[in-house]
Amino acid sequence: MGTLAAHGLRKSFGKVQALDGVTLDVPDGSFFVVLGPSGAGKTTTLRAIAGLEKLDAGSVHLDGRDATGDAPAARDLAMVFQSYALYPRHTVYENIASPLRARRCSSSEIAAAVEQMSSLLHIERLLQRRPAQLSGGEMQRVALARALVRRPRAFLMDEPLTNLDLKLRVEMRTELTRIHRSIGATFVYVTNDQVEALSMADQVAVLKEGKVQQVGTPTEVYERPANQWVAGFVGSPPISLLACRAEGDRLVGAEGWTLPRPRWTTAEDGRPLLLGLRAEDLSVEQRGNASLSGELYGLEPLGDRTVVDVRVGTEIVKVKARPTVTGTPGERLLVTVDLDRAHLFDADTGLSLSEAGR
Amino acid sequence: MAVSVDEAVSTGPARDHTPPARRFGGRGRSVLEVALLTVLAVVMLFPVLWMIETSIKENRDVYAIPAKLFDFTVTLEHYKDVFVAPDGGRSALSVSFLNSVVVAGASTVLATVLGVPAAWAYSRFAVKAKKDQLFFILSTRFMPPVVVVIPIFLMYRQVGLIDNKLGLILIYTAFNVPFTIWMMKGFVDEVPAEYEDAAMLDGYTRLQAFWRYTLPLLVPGIAATAVFALIFSWNEFVFATFLTSSDSVRTAPPAIAGLIGGTTTDWGLVAAASVVFALPVLVFAYLVRKHLIAGVTLGAVRR
């Protein structure tokens, strides 16, 4: 079993409110990602679950039992730290063995477990080294091995891939997913990298300024962002947000454009809105019945695609296009909009107005 | 990534000495430098050399005028007198040396045992009014210790700690604990708290985590701090003079000072006792010199 539940976590450091009522329910065996920018309270949330941070308010339940006041050792969790926190004076072997030594396992059990872990993570030849003699990627594997060497209730991972170079990060992403599948344990994984969140998670919780903005599957978070902030944070290139209001059967932009009003929106007339358009739902190459007119502002070739910046009035709209697209800045363009996939947000509250009709 | 205190501090002196630029005078400048340094060395070391020389001169040569710098008879009689009484038993001086060892050793151990966990706690935990507390601890070192000799004397008389080794141990511990806390807090701050976090998640209690993973990293710092505390206790003169009187309790500094005066002064004995007194500290400081430099420069070079 490995269900984790955090309810109404509150924690302040001096004047900074790090956690402002964070509630998370992590189902058994899931890969649960906590996503947010730096300073959102992700690490504090994880440390609170681990018992390393004393809470001002809130409770942590592990497998349905209240563990709020329990010492970290009593919670039966394993954690991978962002800095890895490998014990500098101990060999890799001793580092990995540490959780088993704490539980007074016999040396033959320890040897067997360490051997199994080191072959799983391909670090057999590093066992007699010390952390200072390891590369970043190797340290990361050792930290992972130390967490995985026993079977705790759940694994907590604090940005474990952040300190790796890009290539290694991509490799480890696949490997972590593989490990999660093979052992079927609960993972709580903190990251500020939306690619990690979207590619690895069963469930994503998006955190901002100590508050949970949205919890859902990666698809839900991407396709149906709960509010304007989540829409802007998740997705690359970022979603384009255009100020507008509904008028009868039309959407009228603050910059003077008009589009047919999407049938799914419940927004009342005249209310200030934000129209959210993702780059892949826009086109400068095809023609459709809903389009915005603007001028080419810049091209950003990314190899497999090119992002076209189009200026509509004073606002920039990012459009995904084929890598072969060309143009000169200032050139007039028509941007075709797939309104079925557009998002509308209340400009005052930031909340999505798209949910109801879909 | 995490750097252990070991790696951070054991790389020798923090400053690299680059040869001074010879802008004018060329070689002449360096000759001048050598000459000045030689003069300085002679001036600084002469008393030490004179002390050593006196300790191995026969009494006749000690009082010879003009002073005999080189052509004297070498004798180890004075060193024998330091340890052996004229009647063949243990000398009063040797007892006082033993007292010094006991008092300085015990007060250093006590200060370390009390100070290191306190420093760890101040470094790791959210303590109410932490800064004020630390300032208060430091403030006990602001005034010269001599100021409190009289009050301490009166208090000790009340509780019967006058002329008592325990009394000296306690007062030296009281002076060394604040120093230890401040010095060690710097060292503990340098050790990432995440080692303990990781150990607690491995299944250790907080104290076990400290003991297994933080304390070993603090050993260089503890060594440096303890040597400073030891030197303070070993050298302390004022309190030892005021608070002790009998030969069986006295530590070496007042005992050696007590040799001077009276009708005649046995300078050979004074010198030999002084050499014996200086040796342990020199040896200790030499053994932990690496850590001493670390202790002195820590915080000054990193961050």
Automatic annotation (TrEMBL), chain A:
GO molecular function annotations of the record: ABC-type transporter activity; ATP binding; ATP hydrolysis activity
Domain ABC transporter as annotated: residue spans: 4-234
Pfam assignment, any one: ABC_tran
UniProt keyword terms in alphabetical order: ATP-binding, Cell membrane, Membrane, Nucleotide-binding, Sugar transport, Translocase, Transport
Gene3D superfamilies: 2.40.50.100, Nucleic acid-binding proteins, P-loop containing nucleotide triphosphate hydrolases
PANTHER family hit by this protein: MALTODEXTRIN IMPORT ATP-BINDING PROTEIN MSMX (PTHR43875), TREHALOSE IMPORT ATP-BINDING PROTEIN SUGC (PTHR43875:SF15)
Protein name: Multiple sugar transport system ATP-binding protein
TrEMBL record, chain B:
Residues of the ABC transmembrane type-1 domain: 97-288
Protein name from the UniProt record: Carbohydrate ABC transporter membrane protein 2, CUT1 family
GO CC, any one term: plasma membrane
Organism: Micromonospora saelicesensis
Lineage: Bacteria, Bacillati, Actinomycetota, Actinomycetes, Micromonosporales
Similarity comment: family membership: Belongs to the binding-protein-dependent transport system permease family.
Main location: membrane
Record field: transmembrane: 31-52, 97-122, 134-156, 168-188, 209-234, 267-288
Region Disordered, annotated ranges: 1-22
Pfam families assigned: BPD_transp_1
One example of a Gene Ontology biological process annotation: transmembrane transport
Entry keyword Cell membrane: yes
